Amino acid sequence: MQFYDMEWFIRIPPAAQTATDTTSTSATTSGAAITVKRDWTITQKAWWDGILLMQQNPGAIRIALEMRIMSGSDIYLAPQRGNDLGTTCIEYITTFNTPLNDWVDICQKITDKWVSYKDPTTGKRLRARPHWAKQWSFLNMPDDQGLPRQGSNWARDAYKTEISLFKDALEEIGRKAGFSVDDLPGRFGNAFLESILWNAPDPVVVLKPSDDLSRRIINGIKKLFKSCFS
Known about the structure:
Blueprint: E1 3-11, E2 24-27, E3 33-36, H1 41-56, E4 64-70, E5 87-95, H2 100-114, E6 128-130, E7 140-142, E8 148-150, H3 151-158, H4 160-177, H5 184-188, H6 191-197, H7 213-229
Antiparallel strand pairs: 1-5, 1-6, 2-3, 4-5, 7-8
């Protein structure tokens, strides 16, 4: 089954004040263990923001609003990297029957909300990253100054530190295995990844509906019936 899919990974922050019903343990610089309570209000807000937008835009999401909780990661380019208290993974999924303009519109609106949440303990914007393998290159996302930037342009800055660490690790592997980092784009790259990791020109983002023949036939029949009763 083919479908449109956009997913975000949002860091779960600590609660503004610790409490006795703690849910996570971490170590201080002195080596002593302390307990930290997760703030689940951000997860709840992300879920309900997604539901409310779907209610405002009937028909834009035709499969699911889906959410799960996972841990953080120490993998350099992982969207959930450094999320010590966990990660809220939340996504919209819809069919190719959804009008493309409706899909793009609701994705941008929910992205604006999901990237706006702030850490209650610092007041700073929470780390939020899209799933690498889902659709997000057409979105406008805020940089550190809150200015909108698109796709690969945003990712180059958002992952600037991680990209450097990633390339250093690749170079070390290459020295042992007999290849260089410059050998990799031609074998594993695509226009989007090359623009992010190797500073190639930004690709032109073109979204188009499915060209599946059966889907075109179904849509044609639906338009015919609609014209008969409108």
